[in-house]
Design a protein that fits this description.
Aminopeptidase; alpha/beta; nine-stranded mixed sheet
Length: 448
């Protein structure tokens, strides 16, 4: 960390401590999430920037927050199999429910679509932002520094990995293994229901194999049907692993020190730095400090922001440095793609981050300081789709660790120095954005 920036690193770490230890868990749409927004709004006022608040509705359990429902669904389907064995019409009910379940899981939980939000309980969340203009008020482009205020539900299996954190293989089995097996069990019950519904339907149309199977003349089908007297016990147990994945108790939710009080703190300290050092402000540039709500509920805050400002200059000629989790000193990296969302982030910003890492001699165990987000999504996706040049900056072990989305995400696990290195990186990238803008102008999101 550069010594001249230590003041800002110290203040950023103090914001992290306040968020995690004094405010605590900040689930999407809750009073605690709003409390953090109010706290950051006051911080903006302290440096003479007027905060703006934009509210939006969110259904916290419609997306990733609803993963436990998949487990409950698997348990119910396992029980219904016993009824279906004696009443074939139950297979049709199960098949229909299974198809609806898969549609919800794929489009809402995996792809973050809002189609199913109306069927779940709603809360009010918000985005809070402040803007810093050049002294003459004239600007050609905007740099948006963003982080999300909310935290995740406590992931029980990940948290239990704390007791095996020195045994990586055992930790992986206790997290990925349990949930992977449970997910397989849930999908197995859906597949069985659909298969039996199809077979019984085909018998009405005189399909020879189906008629023979239903009447007990197909040995393999008879054996499998007999096995269904025992398999639901296994699928119910596996489904229970999914049901207990996310802790229902809000008091046990993640404290969100790394994920993502660090992103909020670094975004704020950066705009404060330029407020206090106007001579270092990029020429003809406006800087936005954006506190995004409800990221853990399926990127709802960044979606709302992108939609709200789709036709104004907040997303026109705009660059977004999305900061999400800066705590693991050995894993400084730029996230360049959300695989599940099918969204590739800006190649120019990717290059700038990599160059800055090298210039500051920041090592990383991540290959070439670069990763894809393999599951879920980050706030760069809605920004990129809105025409903003965006990447996500992180310093986080990409493995599923005991402190990721658990109540063990606390500030005493990392230090001020790591946060300070993150601050240096952000300033270095902003210098490169300014140089690029001056030479080339705004060229929109670029892919390799």
């Amino acid at each position: 960390m550069k010594e001249e920036n230590r003041k800002y690193a110290k203040e950023a770490y103090e914001i992290v401590e306040h968020a995690a230890l004094k405010i605590g868990s900040r689930l999407p749409g809750t009073k605690k999430e709003r409390e953090f927004h109010d706290y950051m709004a006051d911080k903006l006022r302290e440096i003479g920037i007027t905060p703006k608040r934009e509210e939006f509705s969110v259904s916290p359990r419609a997306s990733t927050g609803g993963i436990p429902y998949a487990g409950y669904f698997g348990i119910i389907m396992s029980v219904l199999i016993y009824f279906a064995l004696y009443n074939p019409y139950v297979w049709y009910l199960m098949a229909l429910a299974g198809i609806m379940f898969v549609l919800w899981l794929v489009f809402s939980v995996f792809l973050y679509k809002r189609w199913f939000d109306m069927f779940f309980h709603r809360e009010i969340s918000q985005n809070t932002y402040g803007e810093l203009l050049p002294e003459d008020g004239e600007y050609d482009y905007t740099i948006i520094l963003s982080g999300h205020t909310d935290t995740s539900w406590n992931w029980k299996h990940s948290e239990k990995g704390y007791w095996t954190k020195d045994k990586p293989l055992k930790a992986v089995i206790s997290t990925y293994g349990k949930v992977g097996f449970g997910a397989g069990c849930v999908f197995f019950t859906v597949a069985v229901a659909i298969a039996y519904a199809v077979i019984y339907t085909l018998t009405f149309f005189g399909h020879e194999w189906s008629i023979g199977a239903v009447n007990g003349y197909v040995k393999s089908f008879t054996i499998f049907t007999f096995a269904l007297r025992f398999l639901p016990i296994i699928t119910a147990i596996g489904s229970s692993f999914v049901a207990m994945w996310g802790d229902k108790n809000p008091e046990n939710a993640s404290r969100g020190a790394m994920d993502n009080a660090t992103g909020i703190a670094l975004s704020y300290e950066t705009i404060k730095y330029f407020k206090e050092n106007p001579d270092k402000m990029p020429k003809r540039c406006r800087i936005i400090d954006l506190n995004v709500g409800s990221e853990e509920a399926g990127l709802r805050g960044s979606m709302a922001f992108a939609m709200e400002h789709k036709y104004d200059d907040l997303t026109e000629n705009a660059w977004n440095i999305n900061i999400d989790s800066v705590a693991d000193k050995d894993y400084f990296e730029v996230v360049i793609k959300d695989d599940w969302q099918g969204c590739r982030f800006d190649a120019d910003l990717e290059r700038m981050f990599k160059e800055t890492f090298n210039e500051l001699e920041i090592p990383s165990k991540s290959k070439n300081h670069c990763i894809h987000n393999p599951v879920g999504g980050c706030d760069s996706t809605p920004m990129t789709r809105a025409g903003v040049k965006s990447v996500t900056f992180a310093a986080q072990n990409p493995m599923l660790t005991y402190y990721y989305h658990t109540f063990r995400d606390l500030p005493d696990r990392f230090d001020e120095e790591t946060v300070g290195n993150g601050f240096d990186v952000v300033l270095g990238v902003i210098d490169k954005i300014a140089a690029f803008q001056e030479e080339y102008g705004f060229n929109g999101p670029q892919k390799k």
